[in-house]
Design brief:
Length: 167
């Protein structure tokens, strides 16, 4: 489902009183450089639009709903402090459940701007990506993210996903 760039009924007077928030997230400490790149992209985009904005950063899985930054974002949306949410990609918010947050934004008249919509993917590609994310998260929890056993498991899943996509 594609979310509107502007929630219906958004009044410019209300919008000007509320803040723009750029939300960035990466899954692990190893991806800190990616966090900085996302931040730079969103800062440049927001500045070019002439928006005054805050940045909320998160470190953790896209399947973790207890991240500090995500909670702060949701609290501010519910409090009516945010008028616009800016993301680099939809999955930077959450891997599963982003639609629920977008519905909340629509209900609270928060404009959602996703600057990299990307090409449409097939159902099979989305499903393969979702399965890989689920296996990655649960195997990391079960075995630890750096164990050899986990790395072999992940490689096997990646190979199976690539084979399925090539078919």
């Amino acid at each position: 489902m594609t979310w509107p760039r502007c929630a219906p009924g958004l009044h410019h007077g209300i919008q000007s009183e509320r803040r723009t928030v750029a939300y960035v997230r990466v899954s692990s400490h190893d991806q800190k450089a990616g966090l900085e790149r996302q931040k730079q992209v969103l800062e440049l985009y927001c500045a070019n639009q002439g928006w005054t904005f805050d940045v909320i950063e998160d470190l953790g899985s896209g399947m973790n709903y207890r991240k500090k930054g995500l909670r702060k974002l949701l609290e501010r949306i519910l409090a009516g402090e945010i008028g616009r949410l800016v993301l680099t990609h939809k999955d930077r918010l959450l891997c599963f459940g982003a639609e629920l947050v977008f519905a909340l934004c629509e209900a609270r008249e928060v404009e959602v701007v996703i600057i990299n919509q990307g090409a449409d993917t097939t159902f099979e590609e989305d499903l393969a990506s979702d399965v890989l994310e689920i296996v990655t998260v649960f195997s990391a929890r079960l075995y630890g993210s750096r164990s050899r056993k986990n790395q072999k498991l992940l490689e096997g899943v990646r190979s199976a996903v690539k084979e399925a996509q090539c078919s």
